[in-house]
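Let's study a protein:

___
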Amino acid sequence: MRAVICTINVGGGEGNRNMVMDVLFFVDIFIFVDGPVRRDGEFVEHENKKYELISFVKGSGVEVFVKKGLVGWVEVEEHDEWIVVLKGMEKDDQGVMRSVRIGGAYIRPDRGVAEVNLGMGKLGRCDLIMGDFNARNPRWGTMGGDTTMNVYGRQLSKWMDNNDFEVVQHNKVTFRTISTIDLTMFRKNRKPPKVQLIDKTGLEHCGQLTRINLKEPINMLTANVTWKRVNWKRMEKDLKELEVGPGKGDKTWSGLIKIMK
């Protein structure tokens, strides 16, 4: 299927995140940057029942939601305070199945270059990287009208050259009317992705939309997901098989079977 992926900085707003889910209801995978958290840094529940959270790390600036019907189609390979790496299967233009890694990143503006390099270093194995990098450089900003360069932009450009990545050229600035810092990068050996900027949400940052030919995993049981539907009939059958005879089985199993009926 042609899965729609959206990355957007919601500015820490719970209402902003809910609104984006409602307005962009056609999106299959959301990678939210600077999502809302409680005072203790824990996850804030969302209102939209069509999406499931599949990855959240306390202290991270990135969280991932997928439509309920697609839970298990991508697995979370890594998630830390900087980045998240999702792994799935895609079909290329020749119809060949291969793994694909999608990176999401939030490089906060108050971090040093050394820490930026540490965060980006974990994304080198990705095929596609999307996020808010707070990096300005004419290399990707000129087309949209941002010709400024900052230290993050200089460093990110070097990282792309050293790791064989290129960046999508946006035709407008992505943050307020100031800068192009919300970026999509791709490996040079891949066909450049088509990316659409969403600037009608009322947020300070534009959203980035792209599509990939995502395929269902051959073995869904190997997917590393945080939520799965329970096959209650199968579970009841398995529990009954653990009984060794009337009155002789573990009462725990008997209790569980009664609860399910």
In short: The helical segments are 14-23, 113-121, 138-141, 151-162, 232-241, 251-260. The mean pLDDT is 87.
